Amino acid sequence: MKVLVIGSGGREHALCWKLAQSPAVEKVYAIPGSDGMRDVATPVPVASQEDILDFARLMQVDLTVAGPETVLAEGLGDRFRDAGLAFFGPSQAAARIEGSKGFAKELMKKYHIPTAAYQTFTDEEEAAAYVKTQKFPLVIKADGLAAGKGVVIAQTAEEAEAAVREMMEGRAFGTAGTTVVIEEFMEGEEASVLAFCDGKTIVPMISSQDHKRIRDNDEGPNTGGMGAYAPAPVMTPDLMQAVREKILQPACDAMAAEGYPFVGCLYAGLMITDEGPKVVEFNCRFGDPETEVVLPMLDADLAEIMMHCVEGTLSEDDVRWKDGYAVDVVLASEGYPAGHTDGDAITGLEEAEQLGCHIFHAGTKKKSGQFVTAGGRVLNVVARGATLREARDKAYEGVSRIQWRGMQYRHDIAAKGLKHLESK
Ligand code: AMP
Ligand code: GLY
């Protein structure tokens, strides 16, 4: 079978890599893909949704998989389904679970899915007045897609009001900020649980944990994710069961009941509070960098699982996991996340791979036969191990072989997970 993956980052490289391992898959295309994916996929420089559909028809692609949320919010899934082509990813209507925070919060409220208490505002003055009556910290979110940056955790009423004004009046996030969601601050540790979903059945993947801040000890500004590990020890079997029964299955049922069943990867971003797991956000696609640690642990045929999701025949038996752990350390370029520098020559990739690390490219380009940086997040160095410590040590051993001018990374990926295991 021929498979097409939409996107070009580390998550998409991991998707292509895992799909290429499926016995039935003879060819993997990536649109637009990248030079770094050529080990497993053929990049195809196609831009518009119409052209993507034409390409899939022309090449007789059997399954198309969406990486980023943007193409889903624009309705690529609907186009493919209307044309009778298999597509792993939700419809435009179902993608609102990520694309509109107001929509997601309303759905959770209606179906009693645990999340932070909230209010939605479209009037700036009302929002500004409301924040003065609240407890702090308080969380202010732009309603629409803001590339993970539309969230302000305000410590004072002044900060909260400034955030409201900036989002609603200054349009810091364009039209994404014309509606704001203001919600209660949840205390706890964050974790992610992604799930395969066929519209009615969900099968959760193993848990994982992202590291969103740029610097060690969760300091500095937010990024696209500086590393991850899976499974996350904070997610005990009891908590996983609670997430499945109180969050993922109810969300899947709610989407079906509302008339837009969810087909694809449903991602629950969770806060593990004293009252149990609560939803921070839903995403309508695989997480990045969570995918880079979850897929290497999958001991099953990803193409088959995805086809079963598309056909509505997903079953628990499709999804099996390897023992042990995976750790991903993200290597970023100089200046990230405020900006980034491109064109720096990368050395040591082969040495890291010889140690048994696997490398997923996020932002690289090939220039005169050598990989150079071409983005903020550049590489994911991934290692598996029987223990979390072993996986972590191996990933960092791989990192130590790689170099370029201005390379930066966190030194404490998986530290929280190790702490949980040691306190047991
Ligand atoms: P979001 O874009 O909704 O995932 O929010 C980005 C980040 O802000 C999350 O990963 C959390 O670290 C933090 N955050 C969002 N909402 C809350 C909340 N209600 N309480 C505490 N932290 C939050
Ligand atoms: N890891 C966060 C995200 O994919 O949104």
TL;DR of this structure?
The protein is 32% helix and 26% strand.
Q: What report would you give on this structure?
A:
This protein has a five-stranded parallel sheet. It has a five-stranded antiparallel sheet with strand order 12-15-18-22-19. Strands 6-9-7-8 form a four-stranded antiparallel sheet, with helices on both faces. Helices cover 32% and strands 26% of the residues. The protein contains 14 helices and 22 strands. It has four domains: 2-92, Rossmann fold (3-Layer(aba) Sandwich), CATH 3.40.50.20; 123-178, Dna Ligase, domain 1 (2-Layer Sandwich), CATH 3.30.1490.20; 189-318, D-amino Acid Aminotransferase, Chain A, domain 1, CATH 3.30.470.20; 325-422, Phosphoribosylglycinamide synthetase, C-terminal domain (Glycinamide Ribonucleotide Synthetase, Chain A, domain 4, Alpha-Beta Complex). It is an alpha+beta fold and 424 residues long. The structure holds adenosine monophosphate (AMP) and glycine.
Which key terms come to mind for this protein?
4 domains, five-stranded parallel sheet, 424 residues, five-stranded antiparallel sheet, Dna Ligase, domain 1, Rossmann fold, alpha+beta, binds glycine
User: How much is the average pLDDT?
Assistant: 95
CATH topology-level fold name of the largest domain: D-amino Acid Aminotransferase, Chain A, domain 1
Tally of DSSP β-strands = 22
Q: Could you name the ranges where pLDDT drops below 50 across 5 or more consecutive residues?
A: none
Tell me the structural class: alpha+beta
Q: State the helix count.
A: 14
Ligand names? adenosine monophosphate, glycine
Architecture (CATH level 2) name of the largest domain: 2-Layer Sandwich
Sheet with the most strands, sense and barrel status: 5 strands, parallel
Proportion of residues in β-strands: 25-35%
Percent helix, as a range, is 25-40%
Task: Compute the separation of the termini in Å.
Answer: 46 Å
* Tally of separate domains: 4
Spatial order of strands in the largest sheet: 3-2-1-4-5
Overall geometric form? globular
Radius of gyration from the alpha-carbon trace, in angstroms: 21 Å
CATH homologous superfamily caption of the largest domain: ATP-grasp fold, B domain
At the first level of CATH, the class of the largest domain is: Alpha Beta
